[in-house]
Amino acid sequence: MIYILNLSGLRCPNVIITLRNKVRKTKKEEKILVLTNDKFSNKDIILFCRFMKHKLLSHSLKYIPYKYLIKIGKKKKY
């Protein structure tokens, strides 16, 4: 299943906070398509995926909204 998470209008750190809350409600191997217009979120989302062991399948920064397709990896206990 692919969830669409439209975060247009949100700025850092709200982009990551909202993404983390969504990840908590998903299962391993599910995917989230993140849409954002915050140009500074690119580095944050990449680091979030690396730190939380999720896989960034693709990202597009050519047009707004910027798109990130994330596959949920190992779930950490919160």
TrEMBL record:
It comes from the Bacteria. This is Sulfur carrier protein TusA. Residues 4-71 form the UPF0033 domain. The gene is tusA. Coiled coil: none annotated.
